[in-house]
Structures
1.
Amino acid sequence: MARHSDLYRLIQPVPDLRSEDGRGPVLVHGLEGFSDAGQAIEGVTDHLRDSQDAQLIVEFDVDQLIDYRSRRPHLKYSFDHFAGYDEPAIQIHAVKDTKGASYLLLSGLEPDLRWDGFTESVVDLAGAFGVRMSIGLGSIPLGVPHTRPTNASAHASDVDLIRGFTAWPGEFSVPGNVGSLLELRMSEHGIPSAGFTVHVPQYLSQTAYPAAVLNLVDSISKVSELDLPTGELEKAAEDFTAQVNAQISHNPEILTAVEQMEKQYDEFMEARMGSDSLNPGGKPLPSGDEIGAEFERFLAQQSGDGTTDEE
């Protein structure tokens, strides 16, 4: 763990993370900053830490990794004095699932600086802890209605890891982000890596969207065989959908817009009835050009200059 050890500190004692059969833990990584539509990444990491037995084992030096002026932390002011500081953090917790199996959870803000040093540190730590697989989390807003099932796109270093999931078809270039870079670096160092990018209705992307959190937690469970709690998330997703439906039912303009989106979405899906190699159920998929164009439009907005790399 010597390489770039100035970027983090280990918090002792570090628990034994291997299972009874000697398998190493899964690493789940969800870093906020590049794209967190519906606050899905934050929602997943908070849910996993708060609902299970979690122990902090690695703390990264955010002073070396975060540009405070680009994402200013909040200070709490109380009447006549400053009373608190929302200190940024990047941490790894050792977490036990509901059956007692250990896994690692990397969470916090996406680093602004020293990407190579940070990803190399995580890869080194993964090797030292015997990580057998890494799973990354993403969330983007798309033109999908909240009244249809929440979907996610899968990607992996080995197609067998995401067999049964739907992948982005085609090839295109996107702005870099630490989560995707970490997924790449893991696979380059022989650690199987996968990731899931959940689709959030664009008109709900600025608020917490429980259905997206539930989708990501379910995806983690399926690919990792971890037993993760979802009862509270299922209830939250049902309640949220009911609240949204109640609100739009009193607004004919919004209701009409959602109904039109449903129609376009259904027609779009029905027009793409082909079966993807990762999707043996034969569910409809959009074309690579259509998804790529939609994806690049969103990522161009995230880059801050309104253009993609190709443009």
2.
Amino acid sequence: MDLRQLRYFLAVAEERHFGRAAERLHMAQPPLSQAIRQLEGELGIALFHRTTRRVDLTEAGRAYLERVRAILTEVDQAADHARRVAAGSVGLLTLGCVGSATYSLLPTLSRHLATELPGIDFSFRGEMLAPDQVEALRGGAIDVALLRPSAADPSLVVHTLRRDRLVVALPAEHPLAAKTRVRAADLAGLDMIMHSADRRSVMHDVVLGVLRDAGIEPRIRHEVGETSTLITLVAGGLGVAVAPEPVTALALDGVVYRPLVRPTASVELAVAHRADRDEPHLARAVEVIRRLL
């Protein structure tokens, strides 16, 4: 038997008349009658009591009808789900977010994703360094990353979203806090708090490049893995830090932010996913992210 036979049976069972069932199915009555007899032959049971005026279900037919309705409902739901998957309307995605963007972007982005792609279940991992995000993408722990790109990687598709200016995070009582802007040269001789070199942080290399371009060899007092820890240590008066401007959304008592004066004092923010991933729901999520940011 096939699904067509089941739908034929359902129409006859609900109409209790071969003529009306044939009309409902947009087919001639003789082929319908023949299909029902073939179904009964395959099952080895009578599904209907037939008279010249009407058709009634047998006891076995009533039991069969209940199961057929359940089967066809499941089939229809499966087909609808498959169509939604093909359209990128359903799925599961985990998004990893670099530290500074966690505070400034993730609250708004998560709301937009939930509104525009309600059939996709999103989970989020914040405070991830770019190398950790790349490893998580490759291993499948995350599906999409908002990261600070470094060297080109052929295993990833990377779309630059924007460039974020760099700012200096200062203890509120620091003398430089009185300035409206801070030059890289102003950081000479100061205790610096930086993202970890051991964990291959992109920001570590960016900040190191900015300082060395200004002729400064930084005096690094602490290296940390999380941007929130970076700013917390600044609030504690343990040093100053250079970070992307979105970090200013992390407002802590005892910290002020000042723009870093340098013609190219900025760092890219990008969205990335594995090059071998082409699922429709992932593509739609990346499209939303690119449009919003």
3.
Amino acid sequence: MANTPDLAPSRKRASSGGSSTTSTASTVEAEAAAAAASVTEEAREAELQAQISQLQTDLKAIAGTLAKLTGEKVEEVREVAKGEMRHLRRQGQGMLDEAQSQAGAMEKQLTDTIREKPLTAVASAMGIGFILALLTRH
């Protein structure tokens, strides 16, 4: 018949002193700790990947919002610039009309003066021509 220790090899033998059981238990504990650390590290990596993915999604949403706001502001500035351009154009046209009106009035006044005093007008024209000739001659 076989001995009881032979049937149960995992049990501590009286003659071995118990060192193999202790080393086996510590090996099992070390493997369990390594497996737990590996699982914890994998869980951390998965959590970091999820956070990175969420950050990327958030950044894309922020970029989209900024692009939309920028587009709206550009359109707003464009409309303001168009309004200012129309205002300046009307203002410039008004000034041009006024200058043309004043030039027309001066021309009419000069024409009336020449009709009333033709000799004075001719003498004035000759005097102005003489002064211009002196100024342009070196």
